[in-house]
Specification:
Layout (H helix, E strand, L loop, with lengths): L1 H20 L16 H6 L5 H10 L2 H5 L4 E5 L2 H6 L5 H5 L3 H10 L1 E3 L15 E4 L5 E7 L4 E4 L2 E10 L2 E6 L11 H6 L5 H9 L18
Parallel strand pairs: 1-7
Antiparallel strand pairs: 1-2, 3-4, 4-5, 5-6, 6-7
Helix pairs in contact: 3-7
C-alpha cells in the first residue's frame, strides 16, 4: 500500500512540474503604442511636436481624433525645419486658414490606407483628402517606396484606433489650379523639355485638365 501511495505522490509531483514548465516560453504582452486615435498619438510622440502644435492652432485636434477611418500623412519636425519652421511659436505665426487647408490636404478621408493597398508600380493613383482635393500616390517596387504628392513615406503603416498614419519625409507638393503646362513653364530646368514638346506639337495639349502623367527629364 505504501508503495502505491509513494508512486501516486511521484506521479502527482511530475504533473505539477510539467504544468509549471509549460509556460516558460510565453512572452509577456507588450503595451500597444498604436491604440490611440491620430491626434493623441501625435501629441505623445516628440518627433511630431510641431505637427501637433499646428493641429491645436488650426482647431483640427478633434477632427483627427474623430472615429474615422482616416489616413494621416504626418510630417515630423525635420520636415517642418526644411521649410524654415523650427518652433511652436513659428507655427502659430503662419496664416491659420492656409495652414488648416494644408493639414487637411495631408489627411485621406473615409479609408484606412496601408501600403499593401496600393498596386505594385502604380503611378498617380488619385485619393481624396479632407481638403476636398485629390493627392496622387505612386508605388515604386524597386526600393519598396511609396510617394504621396512627391513626398516619400519614411515610416509605414502605423495603425491607430481611428485609422492609420504614414510618416512623410517632407510636406507634399501642392499645385492648386495649375495645369502641367503651367508647372513646366514656370521652371527653367525644364526649358529644353518644353522646347521639345513645342517642336513636336504636344505643348498645347498640356493646357487641358488631363489627367496626365509626365516623365520629364
Amino acid at each position: 500500500m505504501n508503495t502505491i501511495f509513494k508512486s501516486l505522490k511521484i506521479a502527482l509531483a511530475a504533473v505539477v512540474l510539467l504544468s509549471s514548465c509549460e509556460h516558460d516560453n510565453l512572452e509577456v504582452p507588450k503595451p500597444n503604442e498604436n491604440i490611440r486615435p491620430a491626434a493623441d498619438f501625435i501629441r505623445n510622440n516628440y518627433d511630431f511636436r510641431l505637427f501637433y502644435s499646428a493641429l491645436e492652432y488650426t482647431g483640427l485636434v478633434n477632427e483627427h481624433n474623430a472615429p474615422g477611418p482616416i489616413t494621416v500623412l504626418a510630417v515630423p519636425d525635420n520636415g517642418w525645419n526644411a521649410i524654415g519652421v523650427n518652433t511652436e511659436q513659428e507655427v502659430r505665426s503662419l496664416n491659420k486658414d492656409s495652414l488648416r487647408h494644408a493639414l487637411q490636404y495631408h489627411v485621406l478621408k473615409n479609408r484606412r490606407w496601408i501600403t499593401t493597398d496600393f498596386a505594385t508600380n502604380g503611378v498617380d493613383v488619385r485619393l481624396e483628402t479632407l481638403a476636398g482635393e485629390n493627392v496622387y500616390v505612386s508605388a515604386v517596387n524597386r526600393n519598396n517606396d511609396y510617394f504621396f504628392g512627391g513626398a516619400r513615406i519614411s515610416r509605414k503603416d502605423i495603425i491607430l484606433s481611428n485609422g492609420v498614419m504614414q510618416v512623410m519625409n517632407k510636406f507634399m507638393q501642392y499645385h492648386k489650379g495649375k495645369t502641367v503646362q503651367d508647372y513646366l513653364a514656370a521652371r527653367p530646368e525644364f526649358s529644353l523639355f518644353v522646347t521639345g514638346l513645342k517642336k513636336f506639337g504636344l505643348w498645347d495639349e498640356l493646357a487641358d485638365k488631363g489627367p496626365f502623367t509626365i516623365f520629364a527629364p
